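User: I'll paste a sequence; please echo it back and then give the predicted structure.

Assistant: Echoing your sequence first, then the prediction.
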Amino acid sequence: MIKRPRLSTAALAFTALTLAACGDSDAATTQPTETVESTEPASTEPAETTETAEAEAPTEPEATGLAGLAIITISNGADGNGERPQLAWGEVPGATEYTVILNTADGGPYWTWSGPQATVWLGGTDEEPNANSEGPTLFEPLTMRVFASGPDGEPLAASEPTVIAS
């Protein structure tokens, strides 16, 4: 029997962000700005900084639309995964739910899963499916993304798009 967990609000939000980030729209990469008015006169002295450029580097490229999140490392290699692979990624401290999204080569949706563990067999099973199992297969190279959220559904981390093949 295939378990089909219900999608949480966080999973739906991650899906929306992913779809927006994959499109051509500049809206997917635009970060909100905030205007702050000050009553203090502007200083002509340069501001003191002790941070290096390395410390200021974003944890994920702006182009994904998810800048500022930690990066999840996908463990599956590009090849040799088989038709019904176990998908695996690095655990994120504080994460209570992971969302996996697989897209076809042309960017179309193929399969989505959400759950608390950092591994899942393609199809959403806890155990390795047999060769005659019904459900999704790795029939062509697919692009995999993983998102992690915390107990309140807040986004914690995201993976880079990673192509996996059988």
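Residues 58 and 71 are 10 Å apart (CA to CA). The chain has one domain: 9-24+59-164.
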